[in-house]
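Example (one chain per record):
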Amino acid sequence: MSEQLKIQNSQVEVSSNSSSAFSEQGISSAVDDLISSIAEFYLEDETPWVIGYSGGKDSTATLQVIWMALQKIDTDKRHKKVYVVTNDTLVENPIVQHWVKSSHHQMNKFALEQALPIETHMLTPVVSETFWVNLIGRGYPAPNRRFRWCTERMKIHPTTRFIRDLVNQTGEAIIVLGARKAESAARAGRIAKYEKNNVRENLSPHNDLPSALVYKPIVEWSNDDVWLFLMQYQNPWGFDNKDLLTMYRSATADEECPLVIDTSTPSCGNSRFGCWTCTVVEKDKSMSAMIQNNAEREWMLPLLELRNELAEAGKENRDFRRLNGKVSIFNGQNVSGPYTQQARSYWLKKVLMAQKWVREHGPAEVSNIELITMDELNEIRRIWVVDKHEHEDLLPAIFERETGQEFPSNEFADLFPFDTEDLDILREESKSDLQYELLRELVSLEHAHRSKNRRIGIFDSLDRAFDKSGWESPEEAINHMKTVTLAHSETSEGNRAEYAEILNEIISTEIDDDLVL
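Predicted structure:
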């Protein structure tokens, strides 16, 4: 039997499609064979399984066939753990996040009732690697395709830590994924690459984790196969898969899962859920569609607006120096660095405003939502005050102003000898923002070393402070680095280079450019 799926208003229709993994046997026989093979594979050894579960259709279908296979095995032979792990980046789409957390609760409950060796784990990044600590704390610019700093910190690292800890206990692990060739041409290419090293059907060594194998039970399924399976087979942990379909439909612009007739036809299965802060993609189509298709989800608007503002933030929000304090030149132009203190304070305010709005206007399940956690706020404050020497200590005041609550910590009160009024006077007396930054940091460094018996490292710290902020203006620092870069280029080619001549030429060129403008 050949099947193709049309899903609309939670109804299933089947038509011809030769690309279906069920085309030869039919869905019933194909699923029965898959479940039997999974059960046999499970019984072969003592290696624990780790199932990646995101709450989406592919991971749901994968977990469901694993669950159904375990149900077929005699209770006394269910001898090894199956860990269901989900990455919570702490900036997940709130609708999907609620779905996943509710799913975990149901899985634990039904696994216990059915005597299944299934155990769920929600994996989160360490506080120093979360989205807001890096963006608001350190000032990393919003991720883009060229600087995608988020995935490794927020998704790969938590999963890797879990699997490595497990491997240290058990010797090895099998990672079960819902990866499918039909997801995209790029995914099909990666799967084909790893298949060359298969140790058995759909089982290959993990690319980065020794002693870990990757098992992909539904790798040959099409999008429509996944939906057909989910609609025809009851969810074994008590959820209704039609609710999952509804969530996908709400994230599609026309709220319809159409009949797929060729590769240009959008499938309901192509809806993508992820971090609501994601700026790697041009637009967050799924969140936009969720709001557009359901007036009751307008409480998500501040999240979408903040995400769009992050995506559009320009270089005027960023420092002229890199995170290490150095000026960087590429192709004769200054490379922008992290967000400025003003921009970081603004982003914090916007996040807290969005959090308050969602709590007040959203449904009951998000009434206590944390768009930014207290652990993150404490780490951001530490970075601002300790690492960046920003002793204005703005975070508590921003928190109190936007939430109406007192910030529950006074940890950094004794790290600086000046109070707010003193800092205001220092700023007024300074000739420029850079001079103010330099004096503030010099006082901070001296104060930090005041009680040490050996002031090791203080002179290096003072030198770095002058290198970073010891300029009359950003233009002076940038022109200096342009001069050094050009001089180095000239001398590397055997030419004579005079610093003063090159600097004057750079300044003259900039004046001419300004006159033309």
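Caption: The first helix runs from residue 27 to 42.
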